[in-house]
Design goal:
heterodimer, A: 351 residues, V-type ATP synthase subunit C fold, B: 83 residues, mainly alpha, 3 helices
Chain lengths: 351, 83
């Protein structure tokens, strides 16, 4: 269908729809309630929310944790595809570019699943076909037996050259962390490129990408410092935002945590991030740092969506919040299945 | 004398014409302004109703709020025409 509509109407329409959808997401009190429930009770509760259709459809084929995993990933993929359908003009380009990260997630999940000898059905449960690789393509890839054959079946994928360069080493070592780093670096380079292509609203998309790169780099920096790793950290950082990999490498070698936070705060924009950095002055666990920074990123994205109410920001805020809702529910379900305490599970939630 | 009479007639006709143009502008411009306002509100209202049917009544009220601008325009036009 050729889109002939112009003016701000379609932008306002889609932004409002996604704002309403965002308002329908689970509130933090719901998570608190779930933490005190058993797994069957959680399934029943999830079945009464926006996930009802998926839980009803899959209820006959799956049960327990499998049902939750499958229903949540189906719902997430469906919601994402719906957003792509709704988004007008350039916003569709940006949304599709943002969702390409799920291709990386799916490919790495398949590769890791194959390496660990997991069954096809079990891997399929956790795939989220929201990117350019659709369900049919992923099913075809899943049927491949070995790790190398999985890589060969991805020849038509945009990121195949990176897979081709790294797969041999990954398959022989049994770890795909290097491949993962390279794929994400390429993804962010592509996203920056999309933002700079001159499409309407590109500046706003660029702001989001740079914010995400900054947050990811800061998370990596704190993780590296936590591990006390002295190796060349430059290759783990993503270029293109506030800090260059060299600057981050320099900060990684600084002795004092305060000095690192001072250097970060002096350059980074956005008051919410500066406040979050101040909170990190006290020693915290890796998990707490991660959750704090993720919350800050979401907060900053909310601010941006209020500054630019009819742009890509309301869409991105919904996509990110929806992702965290699904991850929170998965964390609760998996935690309950493994009989973890509510306090331990709570640490993994982004509320 | 004839020339003077003609001038008064022309002046009267011109004044009536100017009144009609003024009334037209008052209604026309306020109509356009309402349309611009309703375009944004209407898009948002349809978006909100598509997600939540319960919002229909509220959305409709908000959508027609800019109509008040046309009513102001109409009142001004009537005042110009019939004063």
């Amino acid at each position: 269908m050729v889109q002939t509509s112009s003016g701000p109407g379609p932008y306002i329409y889609v932004s409002t729809r996604l704002r309403v959808r965002k308002a329908k997401l689970l509130a933090s009190e719901e998570y608190q309630r779930m933490l005190n429930m058993s797994l069957p009770e959680i399934i029943r509760l999830i079945g009464e929310t926006e996930y009802q259709k998926e839980v009803d459809e899959l209820g006959t084929s799956f049960e327990g944790i499998d049902l939750i995993e499958e229903a949540l990933s189906w719902n997430l993929a469906k919601e994402y595809q719906k957003v792509i359908e709704l988004a007008p003009g350039a916003l569709k380009e940006f949304t599709m570019a943002y969702l390409r990260r799920w291709d990386i997630y799916n490919v790495l999940t398949i590769l890791r699943g194959k390496m660990q000898g997991m069954k096809e059905g079990k891997i399929k449960e956790v795939l989220i076909p929201a990117g350019s690789l659709d369900r049919t393509t992923l099913d075809r890839i899943l049927k491949e037996e070995s790790c190398e054959r999985v890589a060969d079946s991805l020849k038509s994928w945009k990121m195949y050259p990176i897979i081709a360069a790294e797969i041999t080493e990954g398959c022989s070592v049994g770890s795909f962390s290097k491949l993962e780093n390279e794929l994400y670096k390429r993804l962010y380079a592509d996203l920056l490129q999309v933002g700079k292509e001159g499409l309407k609203g590109g500046d706003q998309f660029l702001k989001f990408v740079q914010l995400e790169i900054d947050v990811k780099n800061i998370k990596t920096l704190f993780r590296m410092r936590g591990d006390g790793s002295e190796e060349d950290a430059k290759k783990f950082f993503i270029p293109g935002a506030t800090f260059s990999p060299e600057e981050l490498q320099h900060m990684n070698q600084m002795a004092s945590r305060d000095e690192v936070i001072d250097t970060l705060s002096s350059k980074i924009k956005g008051k919410s991030i500066q406040v979050a950095l101040e909170e990190l002055r006290t020693e915290k666990s890796e998990q707490e740092v991660d959750a704090e920074l993720t919350r800050t990123q979401l907060e900053r994205m909310e601010q941006l969506s209020k500054i630019n109410p009819f742009s890509i920001h309301p869409i991105l805020v919904f996509l990110e919040k929806k992702k965290h809702e699904v991850f929170n529910l998965l964390a609760i379900a998996r935690g309950k299945e493994s009989r973890l305490s509510s306090e331990t599970i709570e640490k993994y939630l982004v509320i | 004398m004839a020339a003077e009479l003609m001038t008064v007639e022309v002046a009267t006709a011109t004044a009536a014409g100017m009144k009609a143009i003024g009334a037209g502008i008052a209604v026309g411009l306020t109509g356009i302004a309402s349309g611009i306002g309703e375009m944004a509100i209407g898009s948002a209202a349809v978006g909100a109703v598509a997600e939540n049917k319960d919002m229909f009544g509220l959305a409709l009220v908000f959508t027609v709020l800019p109509e008040t601008i046309v009513i102001f325009g109409l009142v001004v036009a009537l005042l110009i025409m019939f004063q």
